[in-house]
């Protein structure tokens, strides 16, 4: 039909009275911008793949096509035809019908463009909301002598109703909370923010039971209006005495894995907040011994593993041989083997009670003023936890920003090189970092069982090689004042970095 030049000219002239018309003399016209394509059966058969590709390129926006066809061709493979066209007109063509179909398809195109713009705007707003919600969660772990703390929160959508929090209302005391608001998405996220703010306001001067009771009263109207509730575990840790006082408000997904492998459930338990406004909560008390691990998690972990029952005993078995709280969290969130967002908000908090600090050999003239130890698995993703841990620790030690920045960069570069080039991707390896502050210097001892290497022998890479790496070990030499590496027994490395806090005379 449209292969005849006269038919095409008449159609273009008639449409040009109300619309801007692009003459389609060649197949390349499909590559130019347009809002509606009008095509006949022969052209559609010939250009099938190109039409499909053009429509896919516009997605999620609709690019409509109108098919002009003879009546005897209407019975053509209709299922296949409707994959590429949105309307059809059979000959003979009525001008009124053609105008109506054109206007309907152009209107559908405009609405599709508007919907896509609104969708992008919504996605941008949800991204900002997710950033705000993420900023409400603690971005660093406190330095707790004798304890190792880590947490992770994975929302099922951009925002969610799970949260964890901690505060230090006074030296030697840590408040710890995990909450799970019923539901997902924005409604749960809004209620989560309100609950978190309320708990933070009342926890400073109250024990766990009083904190939860006061929060219940303050939030009664919000729970009533929203028809929602929250399961909550709120605890207070006395660091020196290793004593944990807690309230379980309907959460229940909490246990302690003792050093000997035994699993202890934490009782008593009350109802979730928002069920009965006059509910009163009873405290429990438990003592933590070295190598005990407290694990809190939301039901999102269970929902993500529906193919197997995740009891506390099963989860406790995942902790075997884990070197620290960060690795335990990593193991638990990886347990479902998720390829995308979890089906429900998933949160894990781990508090590990440590042995006494392992002794670190300190050279003469560097009397120990403060020391700390951290162990990470040989995965590049774990290096971020070292960065946060060192930044927090050096800040707590009042180390200058310049010295702290150089030292953190040097240690993270070292760990990254050990993982990539020493362990070469072996996930079973470990890196142990000992951080010691002396009278005028900070000493970092890094232990690993990877292939031997030597920083002292690292030469500056040629300029043409920088794009492919190779600068890390050389950079470490420039960031610290002293560096040495040894490989006892030919396996593994003991690397010592020293950074002076004041220029040496």
SSE layout:
Layout: H1 5-15, E1 37-40, H2 41-46, H3 48-58, E2 65-69, H4 78-81, E3 87-90, H5 95-136, E4 147-154, E5 162-170, E6 173-181, H6 185-203, H7 208-218, H8 220-226, E7 230-238, E8 243-249, E9 254-257, E10 263-265, E11 284-287, E12 293-297, H9 300-303, H10 312-318, H11 325-334, E13 346-353, E14 370-377, H12 383-396, H13 401-423, E15 430-437, E16 441-448, H14 472-479, E17 482-486, E18 493-500
Parallel strand pairs: 1-2, 2-3
Antiparallel strand pairs: 4-13, 5-6, 6-7, 7-8, 8-11, 9-10, 9-12, 12-13, 14-15, 15-16, 16-18, 17-18
Helix pairs in contact: 6-7, 12-13, 13-14
Describe the structure.
The protein has 505 residues and is an alpha+beta fold. Residues 357-369 and 463-469 have low confidence and may be disordered. α6 crosses α7, α12 runs antiparallel to α13 and α13 runs antiparallel to α14. It is built from 14 helices and 18 strands. The chain has helices at 5-15, 41-46, 48-58, 78-81, 95-136, 185-203, 208-218, 220-226, 300-303, 312-318, 325-334, 383-396, 401-423, 472-479, and strands at residues 37-40, 65-69, 87-90, 147-154, 162-170, 173-181, 230-238, 243-249, 254-257, 263-265, 284-287, 293-297, 346-353, 370-377, 430-437, 441-448, 482-486, 493-500. β15 and β16 form a beta hairpin.
